[in-house]
Amino acid sequence: MELLSNQPRYDTVPDKYIFPPEKRPVNNVVNPSINLPVIDLRGGCIDSDIGRDEIIRDIMKAGKEFGFFQVINHGIQAKTLNDMLQVCENFFKMPAEEKKRYYSDDMSRAFFLNSSTQYDQSETRYWRDYMRISCYPIEEFIDQWPENPENFRAVLSEYTVRVREIASKLLKLIAEGFGLDRDYFCGDLSNGTKMKVNYYPPCPDPSLTMGLLPHCDRQLITVLAQGTAACGLQAKYKEGWIDVKPIPNAFVINFGHQLEIITNGVLKSVEHRAITNSGAARTSVAVFIMPDMESFISPAKEMVNEENPPLYKSFVFKDFLRIYTDLSAKRVDVMEAFKING
């Protein structure tokens, strides 16, 4: 079992984590002064009409320009968020023997632990351990989650419910913004929920390695808690990258490939990556809201007309996942595979 978290500190970067020069992170952040938009959800009470139109406009503007934004005053208590980050950190700190039984690369398991990434098949490894968790419906998967740390299941259950509530509200606002039925994304299009918990230990030389490859999420929408220990997430912006600076108790929201296809390319699934740092371990929790495997995906008919013909083919979601994996999560290749006349 090869996990970075089994060793508390590294003095040098092992050779297998050193990327060739052309793939190393470079100082190509477009402008340190450019920040993602921050949207105030007003305590999560966005079912009323008060301020609703303004929030919708802010989401649409941020989505079209960046494909990313952060939300504050979202209605989830700071304790719920902090408990989730803490219990995940505690999991990675457990003894190697305790974690060993969860180590796997079997994607069909409801919970497994691994390192690096399953998408990039090069010999160089990414500076990351991760848990992959199927988490909704909770009653279907809870017995397959670890019992330790002792409060892991209780914290994960509560967190899953609360994050799904945020995602549901955001999807309703997005639907309204496009003139779709408010419940357009409810049901089959958002029934699935998976979670990926990433652990990036301090790296002796962050210039040599990467935490995670540039990629776009394959799902509908992602709700990410990145903690405040260090800045590590970067989003593609124009010809470079911008730092997604941590904000206490905020969530980072980004759109997946499915939302780009359903909106016929109006909202973009934007590439993002993780870099490392030498000062502190960093933990992030990404919750992916996704369609059922047998869901039929296509551009919404309301998004298509003579001036805006459909840009993407129709498909079954499970077929998209297969192609996404076969193409190593590379944005250009994945979207080209589903473009009409692509």
UniProtKB/TrEMBL annotation:
Residues 191-291 form the Fe2OG dioxygenase domain. It comes from the Eukaryota. GO terms for molecular function: dioxygenase activity; metal ion binding. It holds the Pfam family DIOX_N. Keywords: Dioxygenase, Iron, Metal-binding, Oxidoreductase. Belongs to the iron/ascorbate-dependent oxidoreductase family. This is Hyoscyamine 6-dioxygenase.
